Amino acid sequence: MTAEWWTLDATAQADLVRSGGISAVELVQGALDRIDANASLNAVVGIDAERALARARAVGTGPFAGVPFLTKDLLPQPGLRAAMGSRLFAGYVPTDPVPYTRCIDEAGLVTLGKTTSSELGLLGSTETALDGTTHNPWGPSWSAGGSSGGAATAVAAGLVPFAHASDGGGSIRIPAALAGLFGFKPSARATAPATPYENPFVALTSEHCISRSVRDSAAFLAATSASPSDRVDPGPVRPLRIGVYTTTAFGEPAAAESCEAVEHAVRVCEALGHHVERVDRLPVSGEAVSRGFFTMAGGAVGAVRDMLAPVLGRPLAPGDVEPFTWALLAWFDGLSEEQRALAFAGLQEQGAAMRGFLERYDVTLCPTIGCARPEIGFLSPELPFDVALRRTEQLAGFTAVHNPAGAPSMSVPLHWTEAGLPVGVLFSASPGADAQLLRLAYQLEEAVPWSDRWARRPGGVA
Predict the structure, then answer these.
(1) Which residues are part of the catalytic machinery?
(2) Among 47, 178, 251, 402, which is most exposed with the fewest C-beta within 10 angstroms?
(3) Within 10 Å of residue 223's Cβ, how many Cβ atoms?
(4) Which residue, 285, 433, 305, is CA-closest to 352?
(5) Span 52-56, average pLDDT
(6) In whole angstroms, how far apart are CA 331 and each of 59, 345, 382, 386?
(7) What pairs with residue 110 in β-bridges?
(8) Mind giving me the DSSP string for 258-313?
(9) What is the pTM of this model?
């Protein structure tokens, strides 16, 4: 087997398979072995090795043919568990594909199993009653983020070259920032549907991946696009007008290391010929975004509760879900119809306000994380509801507003602390400007390469 094949991105691994330099079976078995050797990270669940190896032996012709892959526990993929991080769905294995999983299969990817997620994707951490705590390879005390914490950990540890993730308020971008990876959130409805149903909470969510290279992200976006789409490749980038801010939608300043990361990114962008303009404050109410988001989330969880009651033969009970989920249900139930309608309308208004702000610039730049680097427990589902709510607002104070705006947004690992920890910065643009962001990402990747930065843990992840 090619030495250190696991350090290659998915594009390079696919090229090796096509050229005969390595077989798909070797790649898949190697990934399975690495997952087993790094089981203490607790990032991967629901492995079906026999199924994966059978698929590898019948490798197809897609752009990622033979490359090992992992999908998030929230995605309903036939033959694999889809527990959504919850004990309620621990035995659920869907049988029917959705358009998004068809795209994954047609791309030739070999899905080995699932990555861990917070319960129902609600919290920006990956610490569940079902699967336990997912660990960040950069240090045992640091949170992996969420809800795509398992995906970020799996890629950061070299278990797979990239992994599916989803983002309803920062769940791709925040874990990517904490893991030193590239995390791109596409524009709303840019990719094929990933659920068999539609609701307002699903409409906020973008499906994509967490990757080590920009080219993997661009190629995966083309492969999973809602309509036929060519891959965005590197190319000339005209001088861009970039609006820069370091205050969250709640009017709170970012932590020092995030501000330092933004200033470093400003210097990089200016050296590349872009024009930077400082912004004092977003024309957005973080409070309204938070209230609308959690009202939608509460409604979605309420629909799950109502659906399951006949199956369980009884009403849902507190012990069926985590404390945060139960408290969210109680909070939502306490809202009047008028309050719910006002929250939904407020979220739409804030999305429109953010779109107006984004239209003033080609690109915006801010921190990815709205608070100090979180440790495990910072967003535990065992916390009192009001504490978890407030900490979510702090963590996602920069990322959440792009979802109701329908805007593309990406966390880029341009900065590292003196202690060697990654700090992501967030670039965003108007809805539909995904290609512009990706071309900028290629330029940044060339200017400040990050692919050779690996976390080191006892036992040697890298």
Answers:
(1) 72, 147, 171
(2) 251
(3) 20
(4) 285
(5) 98
(6) 49, 18, 16, 10
(7) 68
(8) HHHHHHHHHHHHHHTT-EEEE-S--SS-HHHHHHHHHHHHHHHHHHHHHHHHHHHT
(9) 0.97
